[in-house]
């Protein structure tokens, strides 16, 4: 019996890739709060890295391991997996936040504490950072866009936050 041409892989490599892909998909779709709302940008980037590199590369790897050879159209499957994972995770996480704010949302006031202008590919944009009180503690928002340059330091905005997890919030702006 002749060996199958192409890449020969140990069985555990394929099984490991399947388990890792399932783990990445679950983590992408149901991102834990401590990751999604972390104070550290690098931690919040984990789901993005998983969606844009981990899932597509694992799909391509599994196709190569299954077929024993790389075929250029596998890249299309990897890109398709990227779009499906990114869209699904955005929809699920957006709905989870909306539901949490609907059931546990508390209205309060946030004060603009910082304002800065940042350079982007499309030009310069304004961003604001606010602070608010929740559960007798002071919380800060992430930098939020102020595209119309509406707010200045000291302005007050309405904010809705999750009473059980105040890092989950939504600024309500008047434009």
Description:
The chain is an alpha+beta fold and 175 residues long. The chain is 46% helix and 28% strand. Strands 1, 2, 3, 4, 5 and 6 form a six-stranded antiparallel beta sheet that branches. A hairpin with a 2-residue loop joins strand 1 and strand 2. Helix 4 packs antiparallel against helix 5. The longest helix has 31 residues, at 74-104. It is elongated and about 60 Å long.
Helical content, roughly? 40-55%
User: Based on the structure, what is the oligomeric state of the protein chains?
Assistant: single chain
**How far is the N terminus from the C terminus?**
73 Å
H/E topology pattern: HHHHHEEEEEE
Low-confidence stretches: none
Strand count: 6
Can you give me a brief rundown of this structure?
With 175 residues, the chain is of the alpha+beta class. The protein has helices at residues 11-29, 33-36, 41-44, 46-67, 74-104; strands spanning 105-120, 123-134, 137-140, 144-145, 156-162, 165-172.
């Amino acid at each position: 019996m002749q060996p199958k041409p192409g890449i020969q892989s140990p069985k555990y490599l394929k099984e490991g890739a399947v388990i890792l892909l399932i783990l990445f998909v679950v983590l992408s779709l149901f991102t834990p709060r401590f990751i999604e709302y972390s104070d550290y940008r690098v931690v919040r980037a984990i789901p993005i890295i998983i969606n844009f590199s981990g899932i597509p590369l694992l799909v391509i790897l599994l196709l190569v391991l299954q077929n024993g050879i790389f075929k250029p159209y596998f890249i299309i499957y990897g890109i398709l997996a990227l779009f499906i994972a990114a869209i699904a995770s955005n929809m699920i996480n957006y709905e989870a936040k909306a539901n949490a704010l609907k059931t546990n949302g508390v209205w309060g006031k946030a004060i603009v504490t910082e304002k800065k202008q940042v350079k982007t590919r499309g030009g310069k944009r304004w961003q604001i950072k606010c602070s608010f009180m929740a559960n007798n503690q002071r919380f800060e928002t992430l930098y939020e866009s102020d595209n119309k340059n509406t707010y200045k330091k000291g302005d007050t905005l309405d904010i809705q936050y999750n009473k059980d997890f105040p890092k989950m919030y939504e600024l309500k702006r008047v434009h």
